[in-house]
Write a structure and sequence with these properties.
By secondary structure, the protein is mainly alpha-helical. The protein has a single domain, classed as Ferritin (Up-down Bundle). Helix content is about 60%, strand content about 5%. The protein contains 8 helices and 2 strands; from the N terminus they run αααβαααααβ. Strands 1-2 form a two-stranded parallel ribbon.
Length: about 240
C-alpha cells in the first residue's frame, strides 16, 4: 500500500481532536470517567505510530490501545465488505435481504468510526482489503463470506475481552459484540433456516463453544484468517 504524505498534527489540531472525541464518546453514553480514562491513554509518540503505519499496521497488544486497534482493524474489514455488498447487491437477493445488508453496512461503518474517533492519533491507518475470493454477484458466495466475517468477529471480541483493563472499553466491546452476534444469527438463517444458534463451526480452530457459550478466539488465531482479506501488512507485537 502506498504511503501518503501526512503533515504531523499541531498542538491546536490535537487539542481539537481530543475535544471532538470527548463530545463523540459522551454522545455514545460514556460518562466523564470513561472519557478521562481514554485521555490518560493518549501517547506522545505520534511519529513512531506513523512510522509503523507507513509500511503496514502495527498492533501492539501491550495495552488497551492495541486491543482497540485490533477491533478497529476488524471493523474496517467488515465495513468495507458490507459497503460493497450494499452498493451492488447480488441478483439473487430478495428485497428483505437487500434491506438487511443496507442496514448492516451502517452498523459496521458506525463501529469503524467509533474506534477511529476514540483512538485518534493512536489509530492505525486505513487498511487495504482484498475481496477477490468473493463473488459479489452470487448470493451464496456473499452469504458465506458474511457468515465468515460475523462468526470471526464474534469470536474475536470474545477472545480479546480478557485483555482489556478499562471498564468503559469492556462495556463498549460487549455492546458491539452483541450486535455482531445478531448479524451472525441472521446470516446463518439465510443459509440454513434454524441454524442461527449453531456454535460449533469455530471449534476446530480452538474456540470453546460448550455450555451454551459462544466461541472465543485469541488474536493469533483470528488475524491469519482475517489476513486472507487484507492486503496491508499487519505487524503484531507483545501478543
Amino acid at each position: 500500500m502506498k504511503s501518503e504524505n501526512v503533515t504531523p498534527p499541531t498542538k491546536k489540531s490535537l487539542d481539537k481532536e481530543r475535544y471532538n472525541r470527548r463530545k463523540f464518546l459522551s454522545a455514545l453514553g460514556i460518562g466523564a470517567a470513561g472519557v478521562s480514562l481514554l485521555s490518560s491513554c493518549e501517547r506522545n509518540d505520534w511519529y513512531d505510530q506513523f512510522k509503523d503505519n507507513k509500511d503496514g499496521a502495527t498492533l501492539d497488544f501491550k495495552d488497551d490501545i492495541g486491543v482497540l486497534n485490533y477491533a478497529y482493524a476488524l471493523e474496517q474489514l467488515e465495513a468495507a465488505f458490507y459497503t460493497q455488498v450494499a452498493a451492488n447487491p447480488a441478483s439473487g437477493f430478495t428485497a428483505a435481504q437487500k434491506a438487511y445488508f443496507m442496514d448492516v453496512q451502517y452498523h459496521e461503518i458506525a463501529h469503524r468510526e467509533f474506534f477511529k474517533k476514540a483512538l485518534g492519533a493512536n489509530a492505525i491507518g486505513s487498511l487495504e482489503v482484498d475481496f477477490s475470493s468473493i463473488n459479489f454477484s452470487d448470493a451464496a458466495s456473499v452469504l458465506a463470506a458474511a457468515k465468515t466475517f460475523e462468526d470471526l468477529g464474534v469470536a474475536a471480541y470474545n477472545g480479546a475481552g480478557v485483555r482489556l483493563t478499562t471498564d468503559a472499553y469492556l462495556v463498549i466491546a460487549g455492546q458491539i459484540v452483541s450486535v455482531e452476534a445478531r448479524h451472525a444469527a441472521w446470516v446463518r438463517d439465510q443459509i440454513s433456516n434454524g441454524s442461527f444458534a449453531d456454535l460449533n463451526d469455530l471449534s476446530a480452530l480452538g474456540s470453546n463453544n460448550s455450555g451454551g457459550l459462544d466461541g472465543a478466539l485469541t488474536p493469533d488465531k483470528v488475524l491469519p484468517l482475517a489476513a486472507n482479506y487484507i492486503k496491508t501488512k499487519i505487524n503484531v507485537i507483545n501478543l
